[in-house]
Design goal:
It is built from 16 helices and eight strands. By secondary structure, the chain is mainly α. The strands form three sheets. Strands 1-2-3 form a three-stranded antiparallel sheet, with helices on one face. A three-stranded antiparallel sheet has the order 6-7-8. A two-stranded antiparallel sheet has the order 4-5. The radius of gyration is 30 Å and the shape is elongated.
Length: 386
């Protein structure tokens, strides 16, 4: 009994497939994979002029030998994938690009994989969120002990956490702004067969909580103190922006994109609505008189400054107003939400104002403030009960 011979794909380099090349216009070299009357073209991304291509080779260039070696390397890589498919008894020429990419990633270091994968995750994000991916990569490079997939050990994760701690980063920020990002790429690597285990499965880290930021929120009295303080015009503009920030509970990225043309009147109240740039969740913010006064002061256009300058100037603003708390963009957002909660506004309404993805998220962040809200609510009706 004769065993049938498996037909193999035919590999051929093709130049100027669309006939667009000319003495003044180059064209791309492609690898054509033909099998059973079907064809798949792989672009090499190498472009040459007609005089530089002859009989399947690059000629008349000082780098011709280097380019030809690159072409030979790709040819061999494709052949390796085809041989694997033959062993699996399943030749699929349209799956070859994905198989090549997987092989490429298996040869990457973890940092190379992170940098490559991050470009996909950053697509469509705002500048601030894109910068977080870049920040983690930069800090990992500075740390120096996690470079390859083999470096992803429990011990190195703990050492990395200690490294972040020595830089003065609090537990909540270490976990949410560094470890969660790192863990995401490790999980991706496991899914793609680049590593077998996730060290975060066994390492227990301090996730922190939101108490450190909640404690630094301003009270209503402190907000009033800030509003009434006299300061130089440069700081006054930043102070006004911060007060508006407090009364709207917006994130900085949404504040920076504030557009007064989106203000609507609902039941006699001016309301600003939109979708959070981070989560795309819709928020609805009734504009209170202090916020409207600031908008009127600046003719509907907020005095926006960059996030870095904003946080830097807020230190001067706090000093000028005699407030001994660290004012930040997060402080403004938390201040607004806690003022609403302590005024008795229901949690689900505060969640809508903040644009949280769920009421549970709002509860998790602000559960510390609930006792005060409960006490205030009971005191409010005490006289009616006795």
């Amino acid at each position: 009994m004769m065993v049938g011979v498996i037909s193999q794909p035919v590999l051929t380099y093709v130049y100027n497939r669309y006939g667009s090349a000319s003495p003044t216009r180059d064209a791309v070299i492609e690898l054509r994979i033909a099998h059973k009357n079907r064809q798949k073209y792989l672009s090499t991304r190498i472009r040459v002029f007609p005089k530089e291509w002859s009989r399947g080779r690059v000629v008349n260039r000082v780098d011709a030998s280097i380019i030809n070696k690159t072409l030979d390397k790709l040819l061999n890589q494709v052949r390796e994938v085809i041989y694997e498919m033959i062993d699996e008894d399943n030749i699929d020429i349209f799956a070859i690009p994905a198989r090549l990419q997987a092989k490429k990633r298996r040869s990457m270091t973890f940092l190379e994989y992170y940098a490559d994968k991050a470009e996909t995750y950053k697509h469509g994000l705002g500048v601030i969120r894109q910068g977080r991916y870049d920040l983690v990569l930069r800090v990992l490079r500075e740390y120096g002990k996690i470079r390859t997939f083999d470096d992803l050990t429990e011990r190195n994760i703990i050492y990395f956490d200690n490294y972040l701690k020595k830089k003065g980063i609090n537990p909540s920020s270490r976990y949410n702004n560094y470890h969660k990002f790192l863990k995401r790429f490790i999980v991706d690597g496991m899914r793609e067969g680049l590593t077998r285990r996730n060290p975060y499965d066994t390492v227990r880290l301090d996730h922190g909580d939101f108490d450190h930021s909640i404690d630094k929120c301003l009270t209503l009295g402190e907000v009033k103190q800030l509003q009434n303080a006299t300061m130089e015009p440069r700081l006054e503009r930043v102070r006004d922006l911060f007060v508006f920030h407090c009364y709207t509970c917006m994130s900085y990225s949404d504040l920076a994109k504030f557009d007064s043309r989106l203000i609507q009147i609902v039941d006699g109240t001016k309301v600003y609505s939109g979708r959070r740039g981070k989560t795309k969740v819709r928020f609805t913010i009734p504009l209170l008189p202090p916020a409207l006064d600031i908008l009127a002061k600046y003719n509907g256009k907020l005095p926006i400054v960059s996030n870095v300058k904003y946080n830097a100037y807020l230190k001067e603003v706090a000093a000028a107003a005699g407030i001994g708390k660290l004012l930040t963009t997060h402080c403004a957002r938390h201040t607004g939400a806690t003022l609403l909660l302590n005024a008795g506004v229901p949690m689900e309404i505060v969640s809508k104002v903040c644009g949280h993805s769920s009421v549970k998220m709002t509860e998790k962040i602000y559960e510390k403030m609930l006792p005060k809200t409960v006490v205030a609510a009971v005191n409010e009706i005490e006289d009616k009960l006795v």
